[in-house]
Design goal:
The complex is a heterotrimer of chains A (481), B (89) and C (466). Chain A has a domain of 256 residues: Alpha-Beta Complex (Amidase signature (AS) enzymes). Chain A is 37% helix and 13% strand. Chain A is built from 15 helices and eleven strands. Chain A has an eleven-stranded mixed sheet, with helices on both faces. In chain A, helix 7 runs antiparallel to helix 15 and helix 9 packs across helix 12. The longest helix of chain A is centred in the last third of the chain and has 24 residues. With 89 residues, chain B is mainly alpha-helical. Chain B has a domain of 41 residues: Histone, subunit A, CATH 1.10.20. Helix content of chain B is 28%, strand content 7%. In chain B, helix 1 crosses helix 2. The longest helix of chain B has 15 residues. Chain C has three domains: 281 residues, no CATH class; 109 residues, no CATH class; 57 residues, Arc Repressor Mutant, subunit A, CATH 1.10.10. Chain C is built from 16 helices and 15 strands. In chain C, the strands form four sheets. In chain C, strands 5-6-9-1-10-11-12-13 form an eight-stranded mixed sheet. A three-stranded antiparallel sheet of chain C has the order 4-3-14, with no helix packed on it. In chain C, strands 2-15 form a two-stranded antiparallel sheet. The chains are: A alpha/beta (481), B mainly alpha (89), C alpha+beta (466). At the A-B interface, helix 9, helix 10, helix 11, helix 12 and helix 13 of A face helix 1, helix 2 and strand 2 of B.
């Protein structure tokens, strides 16, 4: 059986009777068992996946109505809650935490008969972009296992890239879906803020993050959006987009569309191989009839500082609830005074999370709130205005997803400030609430390069059309695994 | 420059024990120093913006109990209490 | 000059659900940790879902207290660690980015004084801590989260009070206003609480927290004024601090807050967008507001009800509601009198009010019967007592307790003749001085157990004496 097929091919195959859900899921589980010891894409596996797939086959045979996913094996980042399953956020702090409820995206996928094969590895509480900050060891890039897969949704991108599932859900706070998708040659989609419910996504920086699909093809990403997007009464920040079919008209061409090439995202600090891939992508887009022009987003210079100020502040508050009283890991409280107990219990956060919590205490504290946090909010606001102005003249903005090629495990882990620059192209979409997608575009010496397209708020459908058009211009090597 | 004392203060504020405050001084300092770039962004006169909803879009006031005995799935003690360490007076 | 300010917390006990989830707003009577869900327990991934009605009720409070009500409100996080707080932050409101709390500046008139309201904010209540153990060594802390997330409205006043007594009068007026709005039941335990801040002669401001009741509030403030005056007279510094009221020892003690406990790192709550309260909704709330106490009072006096009775009646929601449902143009004054002189004594506590079986129909019948002379005011008291207890119809009560007035002329004449024969001296007096006839009326009343119709008695007496 070919596990490398796309989500749409899988659905078609099951519908035609060419594929049985049980066989496909069983082989997927076997593949996870045989290769994941090395790749470490998963933190936990659903032991009932094959049984659940069998039930779906039965449903199909008996002519009952079957959901649109037809038993498709999907992996889920371990910061999205599945009822009665572990949700650890790759942290020792939540080592034994079992969620008593389903995230809204999980509920919707369940209704459409998706099968959750397991929970994927990530940087602890989604803080990082290499998956090396997982408390359970890093995931490996399937293109070269000495390299990082990107992050923080590294496990999700690896599981899609290494055919351990058909599609995956990650979360994107500053590029955490797009970055690993780019490093693992997958499609990573960050929707308009509010398009997908965050209910059941463990918050890191709640004002800017979104759940997003990581898939093999742009069409698969559109399919996943159809499954999970739409207003949710459990999330006051969702927007009503129901009724939009993201697959419909996806093959529509992009002739005459105006595309801005963001100067600040294609300049200094960009790897030459990445730059040349980007130039190649631009000529491909022009070849499709798009009109490309260099533009400037002046506030980009401040975006990463604003991004880290906001994320640290929100994280410091969002992670305060982990005091080990109501849930958590085994650490008896006898003999401790309250404050000393929780301060000790919270030592189970890894060093990166601890560092960000400390920054998150520093930045909004009484003496500094105006200096850093308020300014960061104002940068966010001015950046949004700048980008909104551009979208009056342009349909899309283009840049490399990540300015560098995938790097080796351990190479950059100790240098916080140089690591910051890696986010520079992705954080703008989060700070401005815009949709953005990373499309696999090139491969340099066996290392994938992704191209990022960004569109105006709620232009998700046309963004997917552009991503699809770009995707059709490339043919990439197969992953050597 | 961030001092060891400031790190100590913030780690207490955030209730997180840190073995070696010195270790964090350089790391946090580097990041905070990087944030200083915000001073030159020229955004003083900028208004902050937030998403908005109408009051009519908010949840209706209806009591719906959670579908399970939630406390049984959480840490509990002496029946259905949650236990906390003793409070300092 | 003594300056006292208040922060009053009022639970919106009349709502069905909590501020951010669908658990019960009125947690009383629930088993320990029964009234909880992933949202109010702050479980990973859960998000707040703001209660529309809570925003409306809080806005109505702001309107009733003459506050400005912004068209757009925002929520903030107040960050602090405490075991009763499941998220270790509280979602509350602030005015740091413009006026974004449910209510801005307003005022309440207390006597001839205006107490200014600084702001009104909507926020969540924490859970409840229970301490167990005999000595400090084996003391354990237990937490019940049933209350966590209950909607609270915080009313902050300017330091416009000068004496503890003013506080009491103000709080009585405020709780009457809130009860009249039907947003809360102030009689429920813990439904209303207040913290105070006190400064004297321009000295530092001291906040007093942990005050269990309004009664203790007066005592705590009184103690604090005395403490500060004593310090000042000894030329000692009054430290700006938070003090806790020690209920047992009846003193305030320094809370000795650590510096880091005061740094709440307030910032915008991203999980709740700014909420627009459009002007048509504001107008709708304004028109849906229950009639104010002062307007009720004014209306009541038009029935000829004395200002004092109207005041008492309009201030109490339970009785004014009963009055509204029972009165007519002609019996309004009688009903108001029955309520304020008799019923208020019979149904004075919440338990008695709940147990009372008296309906609006009972009251209407009773007042009409008094006015028609079918029953005397004295007997009316007995009938009222019975109806409160049993809920029987007035007609049945009169028969079974034999309370009806003697309206039968021959029967009454017989009794009167008997009285006249026993009181020959008074008869002579009445004949020469008609004013003294009332002595004889009294004797007839006494003989009939108060059931003689006073009007008829007088008529017969006057005829016999003529």
């Amino acid at each position: 059986m070919n596990l490398k097929i796309s989500a749409l091919e899988y659905v078609q195959g099951v519908k035609n009777g060419d594929i049985s859900a049980e066989d496909f899921v069983a082989q997927t589980m076997d593949r996870i068992k045989s290769i994941d010891n090395n790749l470490c894409a998963f933190l936990s596996i659903n032991a009932d996946a094959v049984i659940q797939a069998r039930e779906i086959d039965k449903k199909i045979k008996s002519g009952k109505k079957v959901g649109d996913c037809f038993g498709m094996p999907v992996s889920i980042k371990d910061n999205i809650c599945i009822k009665d399953s572990k949700t650890t956020c790759a942290s020792k702090m939540l080592e034994n935490y079992i969620s008593p409820y389903d995230a809204t995206v999980i509920k919707r996928l369940r209704q459409q008969d998706a099968i959750f094969v397991g929970k994927t590895n990530m940087d602890e509480f989604a803080m990082g972009f290499t998956t090396e900050f997982s408390a359970y060891g890093p995931s490996k890039n399937p293109w070269n296992q000495d390299y990082v897969p990107g992050g923080s949704s590294g496990g999700s991108a690896v599981s899609v890239g290494a055919f351990e599932c058909v599609a995956s859900l990650g979360s994107d706070t500053g590029g955490s879906v797009r970055n690993p998708a780019s490093f693992c040659s997958a499609v990573g989609y960050k929707p308009t803020y509010g398009l997908i419910s965050r209910y059941g996504l463990v918050s890191y920086a709640n004002s800017i993050e979104q759940i997003g699909p990581i898939c093999r093809t742009v069409k698969d990403a559109a399919f996943m959006l159809n499954m999970i997007s739409g207003v949710d009464s459990n999330d006051n920040t969702t927007i009503d987009s129901r009724g939009t079919d993201y697959l419909q008209d996806i093959e529509c061409d992009i002739e005459g569309k105006k595309i801005g090439i963001v100067k600040e995202m294609t300049g200094e600090g960009t790897d030459p191989a990445v730059l040349s891939a980007t130039k190649d992508a631009i000529s491909k887009l022009e070849g499709l009839g798009a009109i490309c022009e260099e533009v400037s987003v002046g506030m980009t210079k401040y975006s990463v500082a604003a991004y880290y100020t906001i994320t640290a502040t929100e994280a410091g508050s969002n992670l305060a609830r982990y005091d080990n009283l109501r849930y958590g890991y085994d650490f008896p409280l006898e003999g401790y005074e309250y404050n000393s107990y929780i301060a000790k219990a919270r030592r189970n956060f890894g060093p990166e999370v601890t560092r960000r919590i400390i920054i998150g205490g520093f930045v909004p504290s009484a003496g500094h709130a105006g200096r850093y946090f308020l300014k960061a909010l104002k940068v966010k606001s001015k950046l949004t205005k700048e980008v909104n102005e551009l979208f009056k003249r342009f349909d899309f903005l283009v840049s490399p997803t990540v300015p560098v090629l995938p790097f080796k495990l351990g190479e950059k882990i100790d240098d916080p400030v140089s690591l910051l620059a890696i986010d520079i192209n992705t954080v703008t979409a989060n700070l401005t609430a815009k949709p953005a997608v990373s499309v696999p575009f090139s491969n340099h010496n066996g290392l994938p390069i992704g191209i990022q397209l960004m569109a105006d708020s709620l232009q998700d459908k046309s963004l997917l059309q552009a991503a699809y058009a770009l995707e059709q211009t490339v043919s990439l090597p197969e992953v050597p695994i | 420059m961030i001092t060891e004392k400031e790190i100590e203060h913030v780690s207490r504020l955030m209730r997180i024990d840190v073995d070696d405050h010195k270790e964090y001084v350089a790391k946090v300092h580097a990041v905070i120093e990087y944030f200083d770039i915000l001073d030159s962004a020229g955004v003083e006169s900028e208004e902050i913006s937030m998403p908005e909803v109408s009051i009519s879009g908010l949840r209706k006031d209806v009591h719906v109990p959670f579908d399970e005995k939630l406390i049984e799935k959480l840490n509990h003690y002496k029946g259905t209490y949650v236990r906390a360490p003793k409070m300092s007076s | 000059m003594t300056m006292i300010g208040l922060e009053i917390h009022c639970q919106l006990t009349n709502l069905n659900s909590k501020l951010f989830c669908s658990c019960k707003a009125n947690y009383r009577g629930c088993e320990i940790n029964e009234n909880i869900c992933p949202v109010c327990m702050g479980l990973p991934g859960s998000l707040p879902r703001l209660n529309q009605e809570a925003v409306k009720k809080a806005t109505m409070i702001a309107m009733a207290l003459n506050c400005s009500t912004p068209q757009r409100i925002a929520f903030f996080r107040k960050n602090y660690f405490y075991p009763d707080s499941p998220k270790n932050f509280q979602i509350t409101q602030l005015n740091i980015y413009g006026d974004t709390s449910v209510g801005g500046a307003g005022s309440i008139t207390v006597g001839d004084k205006k107490i200014r309201i600084t702001r009104i904010q909507l926020e969540e209540d924490p859970g409840r801590l229970i301490y167990e153990g005999s000595s400090s060594k084996n003391l354990i802390t237990l937490v019940d989260y049933n209350r966590a997330g209950t909607p609270l409205v915080e009313i902050v006043t300017e330091p416009d009070f000068e004496t503890p007594k003013e506080l009491r009068i103000f709080l009585n007026i405020l709780s009457d206003i809130l009860a009249n709005l039907a947003v809360t039941d102030p009689t429920l335990e813990g439904a209303m609480k207040a913290d105070a801040n006190v400064s004297i002669e321009g000295g530092n401001k001291v906040e007093i927290k942990n005050i269990g009741s309004f009664h203790d509030l007066e005592k705590a403030v009184h103690y604090e004024i005395t403490r500060q005056s004593s310090l000042q007279s000894r030329r000692r510094e009054i430290i700006q601090e938070t003090r806790h009221w020690d209920e047992k020892r009846k003193i305030t003690v320094s809370a000795r807050s650590k510096e880091e406990d005061l740094d709440y790192r307030y910032f915008l709550e991203g999980d709740i967008p700014w909420v627009r309260i459009e002007s048509d909704i504001q107008t709708e709330l304004q028109t849906k507001m229950p009639e104010s106490i002062s307007s009720k009072k004014e209306r009541y006096t038009k029935y000829g009800i004395t200002s004092q009775v109207a005041d008492v009646l309009s201030s109490d929601k339970y009785y004014s509601d009963l009055f509204e449902r029972s009165h007519t143009e002609s019996n309004a004054k009688e009903i108001a009198n029955i309520i304020t002189t008799d019923l208020m004594g019979l149904a004075d506590t919440k338990e008695r009010r709940l147990a009372s079986k008296l309906g609006a129909g009972h009251l209407r019948d009773l007042a009409d019967s008094v006015l028609s002379g079918a029953i005397s005011r004295n007997s009316a008291k007995d009938a009222l007592y019975d109806m409160v207890k049993t809920g029987r119809e007035l007609g049945d009560v009169i028969v079974s307790l034999n309370l009806g007035n003697i309206l039968d002329k021959p029967k009454l004449t017989e009794i009167i003749l008997q009285v006249l024969s026993e009181e020959s001296q008074a008869v002579e007096q009445a004949k020469s001085n008609p004013e003294t006839v009332h002595y004889l009326v009294g004797k007839v009343m006494k003989k009939t157990g108060g059931k003689a119709d006073p009007q008829l008695t007088l008529e017969i007496l006057e005829a016999k004496l003529a």
